[in-house]
Write a structure and sequence with these properties.
By secondary structure, the chain is mainly α. It contains ten helices and no strands. The protein folds into two domains: about 90 residues; about 80 residues, no CATH class.
Length: about 170
């Protein structure tokens, strides 16, 4: 079974089943390249982004080209779960200089999400962007501190406070 057909066969809910897809395919040639290609297709983006996030959490890293491709793909994600996976993956994927505008556009859109976890991880994404590209430090700090003052969801506030507490941004 190909990676594409394995993701297609996944019911979209079973963590055990998507983990089995990972176990079956992660060591295959071109695994990350295939995932990035599949993540660009709405019918596959949720499974592909979960698999990529898991791959990164397992200690694998992306090449410079794959990182650029990753950030090209994330700007077009349409499902909130896929957006969340991409935002959670940012801690593992350095933002190439030529992709900062695409990333900031994605983050700006994500902080406006009706989904609290997407918002929480979008603020974390701003911190990641600022950490790697100093020119975004002021805007990230402003956005994060404004959110601390205005956010009502406890889960989002917890992530915001963690960013400030861990020394990511001045309080």
């Amino acid at each position: 079974m190909t990676l594409r057909s394995s993701i297609e066969a996944w019911n979209g809910a079973s963590a055990d089943d998507i983990l089995a897809v990972y176990d079956q395919h992660h060591s295959g040639r071109g695994f990350v390249t295939q995932l990035l290609r599949l993540a660009a297709a709405p019918d596959f983006e949720r499974g592909a982004t979960w698999l990529l996030k898991h791959h990164l959490e397992e200690g694998h890293r992306l090449s410079v080209k794959q990182a650029a491709d990753f950030y090209t793909v994330v700007g077009a994600l349409t499902q909130w779960e896929s957006q969340l996976h991409a935002l959670q993956s940012m801690v593992y994927v350095p933002v190439p200089s030529e992709q900062t505008r695409v990333v900031e556009t994605f983050l700006r859109r994500s902080v406006g999400s009706p989904r609290p976890f997407v918002r929480a991880w979008a603020y974390n994404g701003y911190w990641e962007l600022a950490r790697r590209h100093e020119r975004y430090a002021a805007v990230a700090s402003e956005i994060i501190h404004d959110a601390i003052d205005n956010e009502t969801k406890a889960s989002v506030l917890a992530r915001l406070r963690a960013i400030v507490r861990d020394g990511a941004l001045e309080s």
